[in-house]
Amino acid sequence: MDTPKAYFVIRSDLELNPAKLAVQIGHGTDMIWQHQIIDQASFNAWLDSKQGDRRKIVLEVKSLEKLTSLKEKLVNNGFYCYDIVDSGYNFVEANTHTGIVIFPTAANTNTIKRLRVYK
């Protein structure tokens, strides 16, 4: 089995600066911790320095529509995904859906493999 990883899929059309991007990953990490009970074994494996070592992969999609479609496809294939929504204190409007976090998993899927690393 592969190493468990958490995936953060962020909208590139928002053109987030590095600081704002870091905050979105922080929001997504909070979602993982809040939902750890959903799959405690995968969560613990992700935390373990010999298994997952809290690996985080940041990927991109080009629009809200693509993000919504991706999330629907992943959920239909058994992945746990949670919305990353910004409060809008700066750079984006309140309640902007900036991305999703895919709960730590060791499963591989072509849906994730086709995504590009966020630049």
UniProtKB/TrEMBL annotation:
Molecular functions (GO terms): hydrolase activity
UniProt key word Hydrolase: yes
Pfam families recorded: PTH2
Alphabetical list of InterPro entries matching this protein: Pep_tRNA_hydro_II_dom_sf, PTH2
Enzyme Commission number, as recorded: 3.1.1.29
Catalyses which reaction(s): an N-acyl-L-alpha-aminoacyl-tRNA + H2O = an N-acyl-L-amino acid + a tRNA + H(+)
Keyword Ion transport: no
Keywords: Hydrolase
Signal peptide positions (record): none
Gene3D superfamilies xrefs: Bit1 (3.40.1490.10)
Family: Belongs to the PTH2 family.
Name by which UniProt lists this protein: peptidyl-tRNA hydrolase
Organism the protein comes from: Spartinivicinus poritis
Phylogenetic lineage: Bacteria, Pseudomonadati, Pseudomonadota, Gammaproteobacteria, Oceanospirillales
